[in-house]
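Example complex used in Figure S2.
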Amino acid sequence: AQSVAQPEDQVNVAEGNPLTVKCTYSVSGNPYLFWYVQYPNRGLQFLLKYITGDNLVKGSYGFEAEFNKSQTSFHLKKPSALVSDSALYFCAALEGTYKYIFGTGTRLKVLA
Amino acid sequence: DGGITQSPKYLFRKEGQNVTLSCEQNLNHDAMYWYRQDPGQGLRLIYYSQIVNDFQKGDIAEGYSVSREKKESFPLTVTSAQKNPTAFYLCASQQGAGGYTFGSGTRLTVV
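Predicted assembly (223 residues):
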């Protein structure tokens, strides 16, 4: 079965430090991978996607993600965390043409 | 501005009552989706529609119904058969494989 895993329920990082939110996937064929962010009581906002090409994908708000085919991972990164980055982050993979599989989410807490 | 509008933002349902959640998009997207979000469980797909007058069950369709009479609209009805409807409901749309655009959600509570 195809799946997306986010192994950490919560990640704490100090403001100004680099952050990483982990995601691994198990999908057939070439993966289409996405990261979304959710603020309290809001819908999800698109951050970035990997379809093909460079393994390092740059997205909104200074975030980037590294696609690693051999490790089947797509970790979200940011060189310097802000308190305003505190939110719930979801990794997702496209299943077939129209459906997405979502991870269970990782809560990022950036401490001032 | 193009986007997805969900209404109402908050909804209260009495036991045994059907309620309908609205989702409207002006993005001209073909595909629309309904997800349920519960704490610690991520997003679970309820129903999706790829074109007008056609829709498919997702992973947790029992107790829910949808219609897609217009491209712009994809309402979700939570029926009395749904025994645990308290959750945050998210509507999304997409065109191609570029990723979803989400609405701001409806929080449904059983009272």
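The interface with chain A takes residues 4, 6, 31, 40-43, 45, 48, 50, 58, 88, 90, 92, 94, 97-105, 107 of chain B (CB under 8 Å). DSSP finds no helices and eleven strands in chain B.
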